[in-house]
Amino acid sequence: MKTAILIALLAVTACGPSLQTKAPHRSQNLITEEEFKTTSAHNAYDAIKTLRPRMLRRRGDLPSVVYMNGARMGEIGLLYNINAETIKEVRYLSASEATIQYGTGHTGGAILITTK
Predict the structure, then answer these.
(1) Of the four, 17, 36, 78, 111, which is 20 to 30 A from 61 by CA?
(2) Read out DSSP for 22-63?
């Protein structure tokens, strides 16, 4: 009888949820405020380069366009002038996504910065 209860208990626990937790999925196109806190970078460019370097890769010679809080700011070099501590999130849009959202002129994509 004890053996039957033990077998039943093992079967139930084997089918239950795992106690191990998976690491949260990290979006390749989004950097959150919490992630910015993990880097010692002082400006947005260095923080993005550390956390998601793919966001800074250019398509040919066409730079990404930078938007801050919805306003078009300029090209990617502007990121050196943005204090990393002021950033709430950074989102990368592909060329097609940026064109749909903002119109033409985004062949290199767009980097959207939202500040605190």
Answers:
(1) 36
(2) PPPP--TTEEEHHHHTT---SBHHHHHHHH-GGGG--BTTBP
Query: Does the structure show a pLDDT above 70 at 21?
Result: no
Q: According to the model, what pLDDT value does residue 23 have?
A: 47
Radius of gyration of the chain (CA): 22
* Angle of CA points 91, 94, 99, to nearest 5°: 105
Q: Which two tokens stand for residue 51?
A: 């956390």
Cα–Cα distance, 48 to 56 (Å, whole number): 8
- The DSSP secondary-structure symbol of 66 reads E
Give the pLDDT band of residue 33 (cuts 50, 70, 90).
Answer: very high
C-beta separation of 83 from 75 below 8 A: no
For residues 102 and 59, what is the distance between their CA atoms, to the nearest angstrom? 18
- Spatial neighbors of 49 by CB under 8 A, at least 6 apart, are 41, 56
The model's pTM: 0.75
Return mean pLDDT, the chain.
84
